[in-house]
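User: Hi! I'm working on a homework problem where we have to compare a predicted structure to a textbook description. Could you give me the structure for the chain below?
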Amino acid sequence: MQQFKKVAFYTLGCKLNFSETSTISRLFENAGFAKVDFEETPDILVINTCSVTENADKKCKQLVRRAKKINPEVYIAIIGCYAQLKPTEIAQIPGVSLVLGANEKFNIVEHLEQKQNEKQNENEEAVVKFENIKQTTSFIPSHSMGDRTRSFLKVQDGCDYFCTFCTIPLARGKSRNASISETVVEAQKIAETNIKEVVLTGVNIGDFGQGEDENFFELVKALDQVNGIERYRISSIEPNLLSDEIIQFTLENSKRFVPHFHIPLQSGSNRLLKAMRRKYLRELYVERVQHIKKLRPDCSIGVDVIVGFPGETDEEFLETVDFLKDLDVSYLHVFTYSERANTTAVKLGEPVPNQIRAQRSKQLHILSDKKKRAFYESQVGSKRTVLFEAEEDEGIMYGFTENYVKVKTPFNPELVNQLQTVQLTEIDRDGVLKCEFI
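Assistant: Happy to help. Predicted structure tokens:
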């Protein structure tokens, strides 16, 4: 008979995964389990996986090996996107005891309570519970807790877009969400905890409502009325779903939404955008950026870009580089394309050699650093509001302005989770802005 008392969690991947892990951890705590850190010899380890890149798959296997070294008797449960996509493969990893797909992950406590009264055989095969992703239609509201300054609020799940490089629709199912009123209730729960900033997260949050009676713009306006939350940040939104009315409301009329957007681009080549099955061309992307900057020149804009997509020529890569150089954006998130099973991208062109993928990634990372530096320099001398975080690093604490500029100051516990008005003074050697309190 196994007696599970201590549980640890390890989350790979996106903000959505973090919000769901936090919700699942509260289910365990409500059932009487003690939540501990990964290194504190847990009886159960829950790994919430990602499968956006091949590295995420490898990381899962590494974590299982590490956990078994810490506690050879640990019961390891795997959930998340990788668990839905490759459950049988995961079950073959030595040390894995339970694999739960998208429909089952929120029932994990019930699965483990059944194991409490069962005798475990050391050579026992992993239990696998999953259904075809088409059966996953329910939406489980989630929000993260534990971070003293911000919470990730899940407002949407799944995706109907089926971009040719992406496995997320196969891992998370169709686009779906709770109602606006139900989502507001989740936000009100966060407001009661003294958390100052909420990050709206999902797979394709701009698709909230799926074109029915409710939509993302209506959700934004409703959340803006929730008292007790100082800031909302939109994690990522597709350019074709970032409407003029959303831009205008968040930048000019909102009391709480910050001037910061993260807008996936993926490529500056229209041919590649079509091959990726994206729902916009580069001209629309330019329009969105120009509209934002016209209303708020100080607005921070982040960009997702993929390098090494099948068939990407040197000329098309340089087209992306030149396009990004001319765009008034603040930083890039650069992803190196990796072949994924059950996606059509692998059939669309000659594979780009890994060495060239790495070179292109390095080139865009350098461009990102330049973009970020230029944006930070443009903010020197401005007055901003900073939300300081709890972590201390060699006597220094950090925080972010409303427009996503990282700021440093000598550690002072009284500043943690406090919004402070500052003047940004200079960029330090580590690329972070110093400040003076006003």
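For your comparison, note the following. The chain has a mean pLDDT of 93. The chain has 13 helices and 18 strands. Good luck with the assignment!
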